[in-house]
């Protein structure tokens, strides 16, 4: 497990990921409220060209970004408010996976098989306030990881 000492470290991790991602990738961000999932997503989106701060998609559930706002299509997804995994089909995420990057917060709300090919980053808050980071790396990411 690696650590992220501050919110700036989470933003920097997102920026590093932006150099490696491509359309069709899925990054699953798991962890409790306040662990830094949205900070990683914001760092990634900023490094892909987003000029304003990305809002948390908690209420929208899916926040799309498209060129020229970002380098290629991105869907920032927050599944926190999803109660029924059957709602996945309504969100249209399967179709989006062909040409977009998916950044998914709270991926555990859907069946794990949904994200079988995702770079899965799990965050935990340590007693000192730092964030622990554990990565599950699928074969599609093996040549791009370790990042930090």
From TrEMBL:
The keyword ATP-binding applies. The keyword Magnesium applies. InterPro entries: P-loop_NTPase, T6A_TsaE. It comes from the Bacteria. It is found in: Cytoplasm. Keywords: ATP-binding, Cytoplasm, Magnesium, Metal-binding, Nucleotide-binding, tRNA processing. SUPFAM superfamilies: P-loop containing nucleoside triphosphate hydrolases (SSF52540). Belongs to the TsaE family. This is tRNA threonylcarbamoyladenosine biosynthesis protein TsaE. It comes from Sphingomonas agrestis.
């Amino acid at each position: 497990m690696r650590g992220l000492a501050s919110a700036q470290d989470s933003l920097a991790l997102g920026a590093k990921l932006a150099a490696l991602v491509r359309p069709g990738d899925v990054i699953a961000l798991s962890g409790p409220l306040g662990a830094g999932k949205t900070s990683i997503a914001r760092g990634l989106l900023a490094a892909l060209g987003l000029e304003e701060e990305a809002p948390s998609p908690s209420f929208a559930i899916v926040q799309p970004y498209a060129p020229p706002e970002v380098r290629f299509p991105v869907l920032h997804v927050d599944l926190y408010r999803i109660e029924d995994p059957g709602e996945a089909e309504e969100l249209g995420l399967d179709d989006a996976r062909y040409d977009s990057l998916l950044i998914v917060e709270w991926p555990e709300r859907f069946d794990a098989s949904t994200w079988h090919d995702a770079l899965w980053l799990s965050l935990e808050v340590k007693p000192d306030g730092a964030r622990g980071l554990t990565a599950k790396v699928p074969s599609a990411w093996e040549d791009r990881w370790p990042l930090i």
